Amino acid sequence: MSTETPSLAPPSEPKVIVIHGRKVVGGISEGEALVTRDHISGWGGIDPRTGSVIETRHELRGQSFAGKVLVFPGAKGSSGWSAMFHMTRLLKTAPAAFLFNEMTTKMALGAVVTHAPAMTGFDRDPLDCIETGDWVRVDAEAGVVEITKRG
Amino acid sequence: MQLSDEEKAMYDGRDGPAVQKAMDLLVRYGEALDAECLVQTRNVCATITSTTPFQREFALAKGGMDAVFSEFSLDSQEVVQIPKFKVFTSHLQLGFDPGQPERMGVNEETVRFYEQSERHAAGLGAQIMNTCTPYQVGNIPTRGEHCAWMESSAVVYCNSVLGARTNTEGRESCGAAMLTGRIPYWGYHLPENRYATHLVELDIEVESVQDWGLLGYFIGEHVQDRVPVLHRRGGLEQVPNLPRLKHFGAAAASSGGVELFHIAGITPDALTLEQALGGRAPREVLRYGEAERRLAYEKLNMTAQSAEIQYVMLGCPHYTIEQIWEAAQLLEGRRVHPDCELWIFTPRAIKALADRNGYTKIIEDAGGILMSDSCSAMSRAVPKGTRTVALDSAKQAHYLPAILGVQAWFGTTAQCIDAACTGRWQGGLQ
Predict the structure, then answer these.
(1) CB-CB neighbors (< 8 A) of A104 in chain B
(2) Hey, of A81, A109, A119, A141, which one would you mutate to test binding to chain B, going by the most B CBs within 10 A of its CB?
(3) How do residues B80-131 score in pLDDT, each as one tens digit?
(4) Closest alpha carbon to A125 in A70, A69, A73, A74
(5) Which end is more exposed in chain B, N or C (fewer Cβ atoms within 10 Å of the end residue's Cβ)?
(6) Residue from A57, A79, A86, A103 to probe the interface with B (highest B Cβ count within 10 Å)
(7) Chain B closest CA to A5's CA: distance in Å?
(8) Which chain B residues are Cβ-neighbours of A109 within 8 angstroms?
(9) In which element (H, E) is residue B7 found?
(10) What start and end residues bound the annotated signal peptide (chain A) (predicted)?
(11) Do B170 and A83 touch (CB under 8 A)?
C-alpha cells in the first residue's frame, strides 16, 4: 500500500513555448532536445557509428545526438563536416532535427545531406529557451518550433 | 533561388540523370544558404575516392563506384551513371599513402579498393594530385576566379594569397560542382563579404616559417572565422613566401576558422590597409608582440612533457620542394635515432622531383622516409609505440594530441630534425 499522500494542487499543464525561424531543410520531426553552447566539429568532432560527440573539452563529449533535436550555435572545423553527418544518416544515428544560429556553408550542406529538418534565423534564441530534455517539435516547412518544457 | 536558362536545362534533365541530381543538390544547398543564385566555376578541389571499409561494402552491395559517387558525392540515393566531369577537378589528400600500406596500418583489400576508386575518378577527369596543397602542383587560381574547394588550409590560401574566391565546400557540393560547373553564390564569392573585420597591428617582425605559424595560431583563436588584416608600420621587412603563408593560413584555420586574411601591402586584395578594410573602421584592433608570440608558442606546446621523442612528422600542409631541400641539407650525413622515426609528407609530383634531385635518397640514407597523399592527422597513423611527437606545423600540433592522444612538441624544422637524430627534444622558443 502506498504511503504517499496525494497532492492537493491541481496538475499543472506542461509549459509550452513556440518560436519561429527560417527553413533550412524542410520536414517535420520531434524528439528530446540536446542543447550546447559549443560549436560542433564534424570530422574529428563526432563519431557517426554512435552518433556522439567525441571532441576533447566539448561539453557534450560522450553524449549521443541520435534521434534528438540538436540545438547549438553552429558548425566549426574541417570541410569534412557534411561527410561526417552524411554518415550519421547512413548509419541511422542522425539527429531528428538541427536548430542553430550561425549559417555557414559547412552547416547548410551538412544539414542538407543529413536530410533532417533544420532551421535557423529565430525570433528568439533557441539556446535561451530550450534545455536538454525538453520535448521539441520542429515543423521546418511552416517555420515553427514547439517546445514542451520537461517536468 | 534564381536559375539561368542553362541551369534550368540541367535541372530539368537535359544532360542526363547525374547532372540533374547534381543540380537538385545545388538547389537544395543554395536554398538552405538563402543564396540568390549560383555562380560559374571551372575549378573544383575535393576528395572523391573511397578509402573506408564502409564505402567498400557500400560499393559491393549497391552497384560499384557509380553507387558510391551517387551517394557520397551527390547525395543521390538513386544510383546514377556518372559522366565525365564538366570542369577541372583536383583530388585532395586522403586517409593513407597507398604506397605505404604497412606503415599506415591499412590492409591490402582497402588499398586495392582505393586503387579501383582512383582509376574511376581519374577516368572521369579528376587530377590525382592527392595533396592538401593543390596550389603547389598545377592548380593556381587567378585573382577573382570563382572556385569550389574543400580543405581549410587550401581554402584560406586560395582566398587570401591568390585572391580567388571560394567558401569551404564539402564532398557533396564539390561533387555537384564537378558535373555542372556551378556553386552557390554566397559568402566569400561576394565582394562585400571579403573586407577585413579585424586589424592586427604587428609590433614585431615576423620572419621565420615558425614565426608565421605562431602568428596564425594567435590570430585564429582571437578572430575565429572573421577576416583579419595584418599591418606593420613601415611595412614588413621580409615578404613572406609560400611556406610561410601556407603555415600561417593553416594555423589560423586550425585555432579559429579563418577562411580569408589580408596582409597590407602584400596580398592581392590588400594593396593598402584601406583597400583591405573597404574604407570602414575595423570592428576590433589586436596587437601582436613578444608576449603574444610566446603565448601562442606555449599553447602549442601545452601537451608536451616528456623529452623522449619516438616520432617526428614534417609536411603539414604538404612540404614544398624548398622545404624538402632544407630538410635534406639538415639531415645529410646524419642518422635518425634507432628509437625514433622521421616521416615527411609532400604531394606525389613533388616527391618525383625530390627523387630526381637526390633528396629522397639523402632522407632515406639517414633513415627517414618521404611519403605522399596523406599525413598523420588524416590517416591516424604514427609509428608503433609513439607517445611523444615533434612537429614543425602548428596545425598538426593542434590536431594530433586531440586525435591520437599523443604529446606534441612544436618547434623549428632544425629542432625537429635534431630531435629525430637524437631521440630527444631540445627545442625552445628562439
Answers:
(1) 168, 187, 225
(2) A109
(3) 999 999 999 999 999 999 999 999 999 999 999 999 999 999 999 999 999 9
(4) A73
(5) C
(6) A79
(7) 53
(8) 29, 32, 169-170, 172-173
(9) helix B5-11
(10) none
(11) yes
| Rounded Cα gap, residues A132 and A65, in angstroms | 11
First to last CA, chain B: 54
Residue partners of B119: CB distance under 8 A and separation at least 6: none
Cell of B272: 593598402
Least CA distance to B189: which residue of chain A?
A: A105
- Find the CB nearest A103 among B33, B151, B402: B33
Rounded alpha-carbon distances, angstroms, from residue A118 to A25, A71, A122, A140, B138:
5, 10, 12, 6, 39
3-state secondary structure of A24: strand
Marked catalytic residue, from A12, A64, A78, A79: A78
Residues A79, B170: C-beta atoms closer than 8 Å: yes
Residue that the C-alpha cell 628562439 belongs to: B430
pLDDT bin (cut points 50, 70, 90) of residue A2 is very low
Chain A contact set for B151 (CB, 8 A): 79
User: Nine-digit cell at B395?
Assistant: 596545425
Tell me the pLDDT tens digit for each residue of B261-298: 999 999 999 999 999 999 999 999 999 999 999 999 99
Asked whether A53 and A62 are in contact (CB, 8 A), the reply is yes
Q: What is the CATH number of the domain that holds A139?
A: 3.50.30.10
Q: Which residues of A57-67 are buried (b: 16+ CB within 10 A; e: fewer)?
A: ebebeeebbbe
Distance CA B361, CA B170 (A): 37
Beta-carbon separation of B169 and A90 below 8 A: no
Domain housing A118: 14-146
Which residue type is seen at B274? Answer: E
Whether A4 maps to a domain, the answer reads no
CA separation for the pair B199, B181 (Å, rounded): 35
CA-wise closest residue to A94 among A73, A79, A113:
A113
Contacts of A130 (CB under 8 A, 6+ apart): A33, A35, A69, A71, A99, A136, A147
Q: What percent of chain B has pLDDT over 90?
A: 98
Q: Tell if the CB–CB gap between B170 and A80 is shorter than 8 Å.
A: yes
Q: Which one-letter amino acid corresponds to residue B83?
A: P
- At B140-157, the pLDDT tens digits run 999 999 999 999 999 999
Cβ–Cβ < 8 Å for B271, B238: no
Which residues are CB-neighbours of B60 under 8 A, at least 6 positions away? none
Cell numbers for B5, please give them: 536558362
Residue pair B327/B314 in contact by the 8 Å Cβ criterion? yes
Q: Is residue A151 part of a domain?
A: no
Residues in chain B: 430
**How far, in Å, CA of B19 to CA of B9, rounded?**
10
The predicted structure's pLDDT at residue A105:
98
Cα distance between residue B34 and residue B41, in whole Å: 19
Q: Report if residue A74 sits inside a domain.
A: yes
How many domains are there within chain A?
A: 1
A78 in catalytic set? yes
β-strands A46-47, B38-40 pairing: unpaired
- Nearest 5°: the CA angle B206, B207, B209 is 110
